[in-house]
Amino acid sequence: VQLQASGGGLVQAGGSLRLSCAASELTFSSYVMGWFRQAPGKEREFVAVISRLGRGTAYADSVVGRFTISRDNAKNTVYLQMNSLKPEDTAVYYCAASSDGGATMSRDTYNYWGQGTEVTVSS
């Protein structure tokens, strides 16, 4: 199983980025997909999650109204659209796949992780 995250970069505060995560060697539509992030010196934290068919989503309070998670099961890809970025959004962003039935926010329920893509927001 491979999860390949991309789309990170350097952006000014208020700007936007779209992260992508392409999955291979798994039945993509059978997995709940999540995005997590880890800032320097901090623990990895939940950002957003989307259900298997994309009908349900959930977000961390800190990104509600600014970030949108979506998925395209035909392309085995999950996205994270990030708008109105803030310096505190600076982190390495990881996509993850969970075989758990619910739209989980817990790191422990994710079976597979991508390698991460770095997002830096300058003030």
Protein model, in words:
- The chain is mainly β and 123 residues long.
- Helix content is 0%, strand content 50%.
- It has no helices and eleven strands.
- The protein is globular, with a radius of gyration of 13 Å.
- It starts with a strand and ends with a strand.
What features would you highlight for this structure?
mainly beta, single chain, 123 residues, 0% helix, 50% strand, four-stranded antiparallel β-sheet, seven-stranded mixed β-sheet
Write the layout of secondary structure elements.
Blueprint: E1 2-6, E2 9-12, E3 17-24, E4 32-38, E5 45-50, E6 57-59, E7 67-72, E8 77-82, E9 91-98, E10 112-113, E11 117-122
Parallel strand pairs: 2-11
Antiparallel strand pairs: 1-3, 3-8, 4-5, 4-9, 5-6, 7-8, 9-10, 9-11
The secondary-structure class comes to mainly beta
Largest sheet: 7 strands, mixed
The coarse overall form would be globular
Q: Which spans of ≥5 residues are poorly predicted at pLDDT below 50?
A: none
Order of helices and strands: EEEEEEEEEEE
Distance between the termini: 37 Å
**Annotation, overall tally of beta strands:** 11
* Total helical segments: 0
Average pLDDT level = 96
Beta-strand percent range: over 45%
Percent of residues in helices comes to under 10%
